[in-house]
Q: What sequence folds into this?
């Protein structure tokens, strides 16, 4: 079909059909089948005539002929970063600079009028109110013509002029009482909120929030109005919460949260006293609850694990900051009133709240928690439980609390197959182990039956439990790959704690014997202690080796061999110079007999180690 051929598209299609029919007829005469099938029947003269007849324009719709490619290339607008930057500069930056310029120009004009006594106080306020209202009304003309962003900017400018005019009427000229100015500013804020709702504009809602939080700042007179201030902030936060429940405007929460925190902190620094503890704790609890439930109430485009940046901040960042600041607020107030004994229970209460929030089901406006938010709530709960232990306990009880908490979390992690809980359990166990080695109780004259040995015994039992739990979990959940590592590390720590605990008791015993007043014993203290350490290493190594053979565990046997190697090095390098001849003989004979027994066991090859290891751990 030649694009230069005259005639309509319908006629061209009809001609093409006729050509196809004639071609099929010619092929049929030569005995050639069409499309690999049987030769078609020859078209009748009626069919050819029908195909050659012009098509009726009313039946076949007109065909849109595609323009040439060079035409498309010449008419398409090139997308370039320079043009987009130009658009941003012209439509956004100049808009904001223009608003600022208008405000500055109006301020200078008013200053000139005031300096020359052209306008009195009432006239200035009235001019400001009329100008602000006129700008807000005028902005609707631009919105109706499609300039929404410019319209919102004019509304923000008009609202600012209204707020400043009302503030001037109250604070500068004392033309109206504070209650009237407060009510008028609330009306302006409510109007902006209504407009943002009707026009579905998040930007206008942000302007309304800024204006709402500016109201108490503009009307501040240096006096303490706790109930009025916090009641107003509470209503403002509830209004924001309603907006984010009904509209996907999660970013508004950060504006409300930031304003609330700044006002609360500023008021507390200047006005808080212990006599206001009850009221302040009530408002702090209400603010905390609003922003704790907000991530479950906020309307997201789609509640899923893949959240946008702003939604991620609302779901992850806000709960974390809210939990930290809420707890610090209660902690500081209790510290100020001298009720520090209640601080651990506050931490426990926070932990219980977040566990309850974690288990709270989806219902009505309460959305299901994304997995990231559920993990965060669980982490916060465990963190508060971990904080509560050192706040309530002292000395060895801190160590015991962290160790038991870590073991309990690991047991729960195995039950629910949670990798997050296993990580939190690891943190608790590490904290407990560090406390065990650093914050242990002082020495005691009583051997074994003392606080330090009891604390070490708890640590040994906990890590033994961890090793046994991990050993039983190697093939029971989706995270079985890392359980063997847990078994090995926990076993090593438990064995090391046994040596350290008994070593402390040996040191404790000979230390007090040294200062008992017996000069002979004092002179031979080091010799006795070194001999006892050697005996400990040999006996413990022999026990481990026996258990390794009994359990058919290469891991235990290697630990025993390493410990026996340390015993050999100590006997030959230390005991030779430190022990008397009698103890030296006993030390060498004991070590030699033990090593010969071990050698005999390995030579007998009871476990068939020369060929295969039935079970390696």
A:
């Amino acid at each position: 079909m030649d694009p230069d051929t005259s005639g309509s598209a319908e006629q061209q299609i009809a001609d093409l059909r006729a050509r196809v029919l004639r071609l099929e007829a010619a092929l049929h005469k030569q005995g050639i089948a069409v499309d690999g099938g049987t030769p078609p029947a020859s078209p009748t003269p009626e069919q050819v005539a029908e195909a050659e007849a012009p098509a009726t324009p009313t039946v076949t719709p007109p065909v849109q002929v595609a323009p040439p490619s060079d035409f498309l290339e010449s008419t398409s607008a090139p997308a370039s970063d320079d043009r987009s930057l130009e658009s941003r500069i012209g439509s956004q930056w100049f808009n904001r600079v223009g608003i600022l310029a208008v405000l500055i120009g109006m301020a200078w004009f008013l200053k000139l009028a005031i300096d020359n006594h052209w306008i009195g106080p009432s006239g200035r306020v009235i001019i400001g109110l009329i100008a602000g209202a006129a700008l807000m009304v005028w902005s609707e003309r631009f919105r109706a013509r499609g300039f929404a962003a410019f319209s919102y900017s004019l509304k923000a400018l008009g609202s600012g002029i209204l707020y400043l005019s009302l503030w001037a009427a109250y604070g500068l000229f004392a033309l109206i009482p504070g209650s009237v100015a407060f009510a008028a500013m609330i009306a302006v804020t409510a109007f902006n909120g209504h407009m943002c709702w009707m026009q579905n504009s998040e930007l206008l809602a942000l302007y309304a929030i800024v204006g709402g939080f500016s109201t108490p700042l503009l009307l501040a007179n240096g006096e303490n109005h706790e109930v009025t201030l916090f009641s107003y902030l509470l209503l403002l936060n509830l209004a924001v919460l309603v907006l984010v429940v009904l509209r996907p405007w999660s970013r508004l929460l950060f504006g409300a949260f930031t304003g609330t925190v700044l006002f609360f902190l500023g008021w507390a620094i200047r006005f808080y006293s212990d006599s206001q503890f009850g009221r302040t704790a009530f408002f702090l609890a209400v603010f905390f609850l609003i922003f704790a439930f907000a991530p479950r109430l906020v309307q997201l485009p789609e509640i899923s694990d893949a959240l946008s940046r702003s939604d991620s901040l609302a779901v992850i960042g806000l709960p974390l900051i809210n939990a930290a600041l809420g707890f610090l607020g209660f902690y500081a107030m209790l510290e100020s009133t001298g009720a520090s004994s209640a601080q651990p229970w506050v931490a426990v209460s926070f932990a219980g709240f977040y566990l309850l929030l974690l288990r709270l089901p989806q219902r009505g406006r309460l959305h299901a928690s994304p997995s990231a938010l559920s993990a965060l709530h669980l982490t916060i709960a465990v963190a508060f439980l971990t904080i509560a232990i050192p706040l309530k306990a002292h000395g060895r009880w801190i160590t015991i609390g962290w160790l038991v908490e870590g073991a309990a979390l690991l047991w729960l992690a195995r039950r629910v197959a949670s990798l997050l809980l296993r990580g939190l359990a690891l943190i608790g166990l590490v904290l407990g182990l560090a406390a065990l080695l650093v914050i242990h109780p002082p020495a005691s004259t009583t051997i074994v039956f003392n606080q330090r040995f009891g604390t070490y015994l708890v640590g040994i039992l906990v890590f033994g439990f961890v090793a046994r739990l991990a050993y039983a979990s190697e093939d029971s959940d989706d995270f079985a790959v890392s359980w063997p590592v847990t078994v090995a590390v926990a076993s090593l720590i438990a064995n090391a704690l046994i040596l350290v605990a008994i070593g402390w008791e040996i040191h404790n015993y000979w230390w007090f014997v040294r200062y008992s007043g017996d000069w002979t014993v004092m002179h031979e203290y080091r010799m006795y202690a070194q001999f006892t350490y050697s005996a400990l290493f040999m006996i413990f190594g022999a026990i481990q080796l026996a258990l390794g053979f009994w359990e058919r565990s290469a891991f235990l046997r290697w630990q025993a061999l390493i410990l026996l190697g340390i015993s050999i090095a100590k006997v030959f390098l230390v005991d030779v110079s430190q022990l008397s001849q009698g103890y030296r003989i006993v030390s060498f004979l004991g070590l030699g007999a033990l090593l010969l027994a071990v050698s005999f066991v390995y030579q007998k090859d009871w476990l068939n180690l020369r060929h295969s290891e039935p079970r390696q751990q």
Confidence is low (pLDDT under 50) at residues 1-6, 55-83, 612-617. The radius of gyration is 42 Å. Residues 9-61 form one domain.
